Amino acid sequence: DQQVKQNSPSLSVQEGRISILNCDYTNSMFDYFLWYKKYPAEGPTFLISISSIKDKNEDGRFTVFLNKSAKHLSLHIVPSQPGDSAVYFCAARQTGANNLFFGTGTRLTVIP
Amino acid sequence: GAVVSQHPSWVICKSGTSVKIECRSLDFQATTMFWYRQFPKQSLMLMATSNEGSKATYEQGVEKDKFLINHASLTLSTLTVTSAHPEDSSFYICSASTGTGDYGYTFGSGTRLTVV
What is the average pLDDT value for chain A, to the nearest integer? Predict the structure, then answer.
């Protein structure tokens, strides 16, 4: 049972434009959400996170939006750069638990 | 920042043999480490949670006798794939928890296991 879902397996964006990666979840007990960037044959690298008490968190070119009522979050990257090309995973943590539940990932390709 | 070293980065072994994967936290103490498995084009699936000095907690469907986890110190956890079979071929990733903040989960670089 996939509690965290990323329905778009891939996304292509022109350099300089905005990339929007989406993530949906089903467990209302999730209280913390994270985005990771992953290159092939490497471990995920933390990108940005958001607590369930917020609806937006921004860090440079990266902004994460959380819509709790819709159980949906999104990662915005603007402007997109070719170096952003990677697989992006969203992850969620349940209240009181320590482990993360991951989505299936979205492969972002930024075209120069 | 927190660094997790995972070794080896790739390994090829014969069917029936055992393989040990190490996960070390280099500059912090990790009371909890996690082992994930990733199949091609799929999500990272949690296999087990390893706590220093105690038995690992395995997720449903993961054979604890096949995937032996040892977390003998605050900086080292090992995953041993016993009697490996071709279907165990996968990408294994460890993660260490510092227990605090956004950077509470630091991942190793992963191990590509191929069983022939």
Answer: 93
